[in-house]
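subagent[fold] <- orchestrator: predict structure for attached chain, return tokens only, no commentary.
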Amino acid sequence: MLRRTDSAARRPYHGISAAGSTLPAINANLPALKRRTLRKFSSAKTKDHHNVYVVLLDKAVGKLRKVRLANPNRDPKKPCVYVGMTGLTPEERFANHKQGIKCSLLAKRFGIRLLPELFEHLNPMPYEAAAQMEKDLTEDLRRAGHTVVGGH
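subagent[fold] -> orchestrator:
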């Protein structure tokens, strides 16, 4: 066990003097810092980089109670799909789902492949448009009789 020397015991601890006063303001001598925002550093090319995507799911997902309740008018003959939105490419996002990185458990467990014919013509787009498109695509596929999960 280490012992403190007498001189160390007499020194104030972390800037608090023996009288109990506190430290002076740390930023008193620092120059004013400019606030940086993402908008200043982003280019026009990266503005429209969000994508919607559709994943084909195994038809076993249609047997889950939660999924059946969310899709009361589903046609069992039509495929089950997951609809999502991402700032990555749809291929990268699907790979993340399968690896369990920020994944939907249904897409991870039942995901088979992407269905680019349902989303390729829509991408890329700004964030707000992608968020709305995800909802619209989900509603359209449900109306067509597909079993749809995701699409918040």
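orchestrator: received. Logging for downstream: The radius of gyration is 27 Å. Residues 48-150 form one domain.
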